[in-house]
Fold:
Amino acid sequence: MAIESINPSTGELLKRFEEHSAAAIDAKLARAEAAFADWRGTSLGQRAALMKKAAEILRADSRNYGKLLTLEMGKPIKQARAEVEKCAWVCEYYADHAESHLAERAIQTDAEASFVRYDPLGPVLAVMPWNFPFWQVFRFAAPALMAGNVGVLKHASNVPQAALAIEEIFRRAGFPEGTFTTLLISARATEGVIRDRRIKAVTLTGSEAAGRRVAAVAGEMLKKTVLELGGSDPFVVLADADLSRAATVGAQARNINNGQSCIAAKRFIVERKVADEFSKLFADALAKIKLGDPLDELTEVGPMARDDLRRELHAQVEKTVSQGAKLALGGKLVEGKGYYYPVTLLTGVKPGMTAADEETFGPAAALLVAKDAEEAIAIANASRYGLGASLWTRDLERAKRLAPRIEAGAVFVNGLVKSDPRLPFGGVKDSGYGRELSEEGIREFMNVKAVWMAK
Structure:
C-alpha cells in the first residue's frame, strides 16, 4: 500500500512512499529494543547534550522544516516556522529539567533508607496526528528520550515526509540508531505493533474513535496508555470581560492552524448582557482574517488538510443552520484548487445543535448565549469533551472560584489555551486521560519504583 503526501493547497501529489513490510517492521522493532538496552544506561548529561543538539538543528533549519509542514498539511508558513521553534524549546526544556523531574525522592519509613526512583519502560509507540506534525511528536519524544525510553513513531499517513524528517533530526543530532524510529504503516498495521511484546506502552493524540481502538488493544495487552483526544473547548465571556480583547483573541483561538487544533476555542459562550456587543466585535475580528496561499507570509488561514475533512465540516455547518442557527459569516465551500474553507461564524447556536455538541475541526465558530455566569459554566460543561477552556472576566478572584468548576484539563483566564512545556497537558471525559509535558508528562512512561533498604 502506498502512503501519499499531498499538498492541500493544490491537491497535487508531493511524494509517494511504500508502506513498511512486516519484515521491515520487525527489524525496526528489534533495533529499538536493542537501542533501549544501551540508551537506558546513558547519563542524563549525555542525553541532554544530544537533545540540545536536536534543538540547534531545529532552529537552524526552521525555515526549511516550516516549508515542509506548510506544503504537507497546509498550515500558514509563519505558524509552521513557529511550530518548529516550539519543538526546539521543548527539547531544551527537558534537557534542562529532566534531572530534577526524575530525581529520587526520599520517604521516611521503618527502613534504614527508602525512596522512590523513576526507571524507563522501554520502546514507547507514539501514534500521532497530522495537525501539528512536528510539535505533537516532539512533545512526546523530548521527555521520553530524556527519561531513557526509546520512541517508535506511527505518524498520520498524510504527513510521511514530516515523520521521516523527525527521525533524521534525531539521527543528525547524534542519537544512537534505533533510539527514535519511524514506521511508515497504515492504521490497520498499527494493532500488530501495539501487540508486539517489544512495545511497552502507547501514547496517542487523535480522534476519540482512534483513542478507543488503541486503548482497547493496549488494555488487552496490559500496556500503559496516554490518550489526548478531541476537544470542543468553551470560550466563556462574562459580562465584565474586556470584550474587545476577548473578541480579538477569540478570533485567533478559533482559527489558529486553520482551525484544526484540539484545543482551539470552538464554543463561544457569552453572557446575555454583552452578547450583542461581543457578537459584533467577534464577527468584525473574524472578517479581517486573511484566507489564502499558506506560503504567503500574510496568510492567516490556509487550506484544510484533506478534502474529506473540509466536507465533513461543511456538513456540520449546514446541519447546524438547518437546526435553527444563523450563518453570520462564511459557511460556503470555496471553489477552485485546494481544500479551502472560509472563516465561519454561526450565531444563535443552542445546546443540542451539531456545532454545540460535536467537535468542529476547522475554521467555524459557534456562538451561544447564556443568561448569566452560572448558565455559562453549565453550558461549558455540557459536553462530552474536557480538554481546555478559556474564561474571560476582569475579576480574577471570581475566576479562581469558577476555574475548579470547569470540567477541563486546563483553564486559561483571559488568554488563549495553548500547550506549554512547563505545564501539564491533557484532558478529562472523552478528551482522554494521562498528561504530557511538565514533570507529570515525563513520569507517565516510567516505572515509579519504591526501594526499601535495611542493614
Observations:
- The chain has a mean pLDDT of 98.
- Residues 77-101 form the longest helix (25 residues).
- Residues 233-420 form a domain with the Aldehyde Dehydrogenase; Chain A, domain 2 fold (CATH 3.40.309.10).
- DSSP finds 15 helices and 20 strands in the chain.
